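Why show two proteins at once? Because comparison is the fastest way to build intuition. When a single record is shown, students tend to memorize it. When two are placed side by side, the eye starts asking what differs. So, the first record is below.
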Amino acid sequence: MADFLHSPLERAHVAEGARLVEFAGYLMPVQYGGVIAESLAVRQASGMFDVSHMARLRFNGPDTLAFLERVTTNDVAKLGDGRGQYSLLPNATGGLVDDIIVYRDEASAFQMVVNASNHAKDMAWLQSHLGSGVEMADETDATAMIAVQGPKATTVLAGICEDAEALIAAPIFGTLTTKIAGVPCFAARSGYTGEDGFELVCPAERSVELWEALRAAGVAPCGLGARDALRVEAGLPLYGHELGEDLSPIAAGLGWVISKVKPFIGSEIINQVRAEGSDKKLQGVKLGVKRLPQPGMPVTVDGEPIGEVTSGVYSPILECGIGMAYINAEFSPPRSIDLQFRGRSESATLVNKRFLRPVK
């Protein structure tokens, strides 16, 4: 195990009997009791994920807002204290360095969560654009991050939270600093499942204490397998699959997190694609059977290729194989399509990529 990075929660996963796999250089739990049971726990009650591999960065200084406005696509200036937003790190050619979340603590203090697989790349990119009035700190190793998700997640957390009323009242992407089960936490009402819930950042040395308290409160431990199934059901993109350096965020349907008024890195190219339209669009594909669509699998109509699968899972809620695919823009859902499984054709349906609508 010496060749891997280690979550501060790893011993809790081992004690729970989780199956660990390599992910973004870390040993992470892919499942505990099973992907289906874990996915249903999140959809029906509450589940928790160790997402400590996600990188956590902090920015301070008088020029921080101006810096973030330049390197991200969303309107950071619209954020008030204790609020966050989903956003993107654009590159100069109309693609993405990463997709991120930005949180504002106060006027000159912000936090950012970036993808684990892009940690070093993002740090280098951001460092290359830092000015003298901004300081960046990497707090990943000093902290742990636990996502508690599901329709009962907030109620469970409120029962062990020092500031239960504030937690319950927090809006989507709202944040608060509080204690949960006595453990100091930065709590953000955000997630990657389409369900309500919070992402909790706490000191690494107290993360097992928090995990065990959540477990005692009835929250089910869940692995990366369930997290992937849940995010595809909710139509949420994953960097390296639906997003990338050479993929347009407009084609991915992310125009809603891209400012139409401010200049940012690559804004002219991205806005040109917005104005002219993309030749491809990210859509959902749904099979009538339990087979899994595979990334790279051709999508065809009447034997002619019209796109390619980017992600595929078995949906425990829909009880069939589903996925996302980039499809030629002239083809709109709903319509019949075929997926090519190693030369064998399987009937499917082109649908909206949000198989389950996220909770408001």
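Second record. Ask yourself what differs from the first in the token line.
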Amino acid sequence: MTKFYSFLKLIKPGIPKRYLLFVAAVVWTFAGGMLISRGLAMLDFKSGLLWEKILGSLIAGILFYIFMFSKISLKHTKRIVNIKEERPCAFSFFNWRSYFLMSIMISFGITLRVTGIVPTKYLSLFYMAMGTPLFISAFRFYYFGFNYKKAKTLLS
């Protein structure tokens, strides 16, 4: 069994915790940007109140960030900074529970889009509203990645 663990340690893509914050930032930026761009692509540009819909989605996303995602991204940032290993796995920017929840949310979003249960004119607003807090949350990871010493002091 020890040979197996030695082999796993050998192939593990371990990176410094500071870089793990940047990996998280890039993933959250990509996810948020993808949702916002898909939402914009699904938006009916011929319908009225276009800017109001975009602004409403943005405001909903900011509120969602303030009341939920700011806590989630802070929790992940603290967890990364406090990982005991100096070179954790590059995929450990999420814990197992978060990977599970992410897969459910992605599956749910794809299902809604493919089945047409929710009309795209509403789904587009939902996508933009969900992408906004992800995109904003990414900046916390960038901030603490660039200010890692401060992160260690504040979040330890």
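One difference worth noting in the second protein: Residues 50-81 form the longest helix (32 residues).
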